[in-house]
Amino acid sequence: MKTESYKKIQAQIDSILSEENSLIANLANSAAVLRSEFGHWWIGFYLVQGDELMLGPFQGPVACTRIKKGKGVCGTAWVNKATIIVPNVHEFEGHIACSAESNSEIVVPIIKNNEVVAVLDMDSTKFNEFDSKDKEELELLCSKLSRFF
Ligand code: SME
Q1: Three-class SS state of 39
Q2: What is the per-residue pLDDT across 92-115, written as a single tens digit (0 to 9) for each?
Q3: What distances in angstroms separate CA 99 from CA 76, 96, 107, 123, 136, one per listed residue?
């Protein structure tokens, strides 16, 4: 089921990225493709700006705008340069609750020239929503997006 969804998503995003070079447009449409397939609570990007992450294109409710390096799941994924899967956000020390509805989360860094330039964040109202399949597919997606930075 997830495999089929990601197959569809990757093809759709490949097509979008082949036709457009605008970073913001491509991030916005990638968030839209993911949201329309999965319907997760919040899907979006935070972009590295100096020593913080700035809210970028997203789908879902209003979110926190700035996250300091090393803070929350997003800031930790930035520092670690690695994906973080959080099965229960209430058990993640320092988790930033932009919304009380969120129960699990995955954050995937976008890396360019060995530096994190942004992160992709997906939040679910369900516990334990994200697994190694999401990690693998979203890392692939983020590697495709890195060329627009
Ligand atoms: N929960 C994230 C903050 C971003 S929102 O979930 C959209 C974190 O702890 O970094």
Answers
A1: coil
A2: 999 999 888 999 999 999 999 999
A3: 19, 9, 16, 9, 26
Q: How far is the CA of 14 from the centre of ligand 1 (A)?
A: 27
Q: Cα separation of 21 and 25, whole Å?
A: 8
Q: Helix (H, G, I), strand (E, B), or coil: what is residue 120?
A: strand
Residue pair 44/60 in contact by the 8 Å Cβ criterion: yes
- Buried residues in 31-48 as b, exposed as e (16+ CB within 10 A): bbbbbebbebbbbbbbbb
How close is the Cα of 144 to the center of ligand 1, in Å? 23
pTM of the prediction? Answer: 0.97
| Shortest-distance atom of ligand 1 to CA 96 | 9
Three-point CA angle 147, 17, 39, nearest 5°: 110
**77 CB under 6 A from ligand 1?**
no
Q: Give me the helix-helix angle, 2-19 and 132-145, nearest 10°.
A: 0
- For 18-58, write each residue's pLDDT tens digit: 999 999 999 999 999 999 999 999 999 999 999 999 999 99
Structure tokens at 42: 């919040």
